[in-house]
Amino acid sequence: MAGVSDAELKTMTQEERVTALGMRTEQLTGRSMFIEFDEAAEERFTYPWAPEVDFNKRTEIDTGEMTTTEVNRKIRALMAEGYGTIVLKDPRGKHSVGTGILSRLNLIIEGSIGYFGVGLIDGPNVRITGRVGWSCGENMMSGSVVIEKNAGSTFGAAIRGGDLVCRGSVGSRTGIDMKGGTIIVGGDTGALSGFMMQRGRMVVCGNAGKNLGDSMYDGTIFVGGEIKSLGVDAVEAEKTDLDKAWLTRKLTQYGLIDERGVDHFTKVVSGKMLWNYDNLEPTEKKMIL
Amino acid sequence: MCGIAGLIHKGKSSNVGGEMTAMLQALKHRGPDSTGYAVYGAPVEGDYVMRLKVAEADDMARGRGAHKLIEGRVAAVDEILAEHGAEVKSKESATEYALRYVISHAGDTAKLAAHIEETGGVEILSLGNGLELIKDLGDAADVAGLYGLNEFQGTHGIGHTRMATESDVDIRSAHPYWAFPYNDVSVVHNGQITNYWNMRRQMERGGHRFMSDCDSELLAVYTAHNLANGVELEDSLRRSIEEIDGVFTYLVATKDQLGMAKDTMAAKPLVLYESDDMIAMASEEVAIRAILPQEIDTTDPYDEEVRVWRA
Lengths: 289, 311
Fold this sequence. Notes:
The structure holds two protein chains of two kinds. By secondary structure, chain A is an alpha/beta fold. Helices cover 16% and strands 26% of the residues of chain A. By secondary structure, chain B is an alpha+beta fold. Classes of the chains: A alpha/beta, B alpha+beta. At the A-B interface, loops of A face helix 8 of B. Chain B: Keywords: Glutamine amidotransferase, Transferase.
């Protein structure tokens, strides 16, 4: 919150810092602490050099004949001119469109993009009317991405924050190495989704392929349909009222909730206490290694 | 990395050569070493199109000696065709080392093919009623230009852009592979096969021949082996997921079918577009967009997924 210096923050306990920064916390299953910042605290997390943009200042780019580099440079140039809403038309499956945007921006992509789309972003709200290729939103830090159609494999690989939403189905290894944030899939997901997941929450409204949550360290996966099989370390857990409230809120927010509500979702978490987070006995360490 | 692409039109002929060129050129970044096509024109019963190479592209740098060598090999092929009673209806060469014959032949084509390949340096790339298999070094624009593929009319085709990882940069290691000696059967692959040598020895003991050290050739030989044992194409694709180790997404085309299989890890990509009159697939969406720029719905097949479509 305004008025609290970094020096003061350093002297506080974690709990005091959370209160001082105006954050709301929810203790989830296992060791995950889900933290949301209030709007007033948001300013602390923007980059000082990020351009000031006006969301009402809107422009369109016809990207059909442009290279990915030209498209991404154009986005940055327009942001420097204060454009806060940019529409990309006719992207034709180009790779790496919209990567590395570290500022607030409304980015609307009218069509489909290829691999590594909107990866490494920290702040923008992105809407894609088509589909995306492999590794969409990889290493995303914050903001939101909503895809209207399907997505390829490794959707949201190593995501750390923000909401990554695909209304259709996604490929295999969704949320591999996920470290935070939220991934929501309106349809099905493929094999090894949540592989080595470390934090965050994943929601799959449809079915999940084999080895769901294999080798997951932490985090939570909710599946509305059938799970072909659970991977090593993944176990079913009971949904709490907090889980249900969160699921209802998130699915409603993205228009993905149906008449069944959220009671039919299966909750999957890590069943293993891992040595790098917990001080385990040597024999236990050996088993895990 | 490699890129694969395929398309099949239902109940109609189209400019498959031009379409495949556009798709493969869009995948150039996945493998610039060589490019190959297996395209299927209107089949003519009793007439066979035979594509063969009588040297590698690099051999031409040897100068006059190479030309003499090639002349000798072509003469040997002509002699064997005559011995088998095959009537040569036309004979063209896109390059000095790559020839296209149209032959009329009523005998055993497998035996004919085997005898032709007894000529050192000669490899039949394809032999079939509708299949034409073309592969060479360079990108799709280079190969299509050299072999006049941009106007090729047909129902379906598969293609490949190769980044050489498991074997040399040469035509014999380029894809597609013909499933020797099966009429009109071709294969392209993206991935690595880790039990290649075990499977190869098994296939060789069963009498199959390998022309390269490229692991992908195994998929063509494996398909041929299954077909020889009465296995349907779809069953062969399913069986391969159990019996072949490694990572692979591969496409198989026959005279009127196009099939795909993805391994258990789903580690190699494929994007699929299906409509009532055509199916297009490629390692990346950008290739499909090269022929269908309008907004379309596409999906990624899952692990262990097998699909077969008919023209």
